[in-house]
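#struct-help
A.M.: can someone run this one for me? Single chain, 181 residues.
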Amino acid sequence: MEKLRRFIWYLAGRLFFVLALASICTVVFYYAMNASNIHIVLKDGMARRAQVIMMDEDSAELGKFFQSSYLQLDQNLQIALDGQSPYICYNIRGIDHRLKMTWMWCWPWDNIARAEFTEEIPRIDGRVKPQYSATASALYGENYESPPRWQGGRYSAVLVKENGQWHIRSLELLEALQPAE
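D.P.: on it. Structure tokens below:
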């Protein structure tokens, strides 16, 4: 009887260890999956937002990355959609968008995530439109031929999972970064 009890405790101990290891692996897998999905949503969403502001691209695709309630509150985006963007005088051909996620947390079973990241656009490929030369010169001085620098920043984001997809619910600028020279 003693041997049977020891054998059962041996099996129970090993089973507990295997179940604990499987649980930890499952949590790590879902955390990594959420982290990669959130990074992609932030990277692609912020890049698309910058393209809409700078390049006058279609803003309909922003709904893939942002909640519509946030899009209505985004001042920079609303200024661009109203035709008042500082890049309206320029023909922007391309941008070098960089996003670095510095922190992210989301429980595997939760539908809300928080992330901090930095966004920069060190290079903007574009020239002033000929019909806006005088306007750009008056606004930006002697360096008017090149587009104005993008104001990078360190942001805090809240994302929510809706119908299996992550969307940016809110962005908060924590610190404005000096534009790269």
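A.M.: thanks! The chain has a mean pLDDT of 91.
D.P.: also worth noting: The first strand starts at residue 90 and ends at 105.
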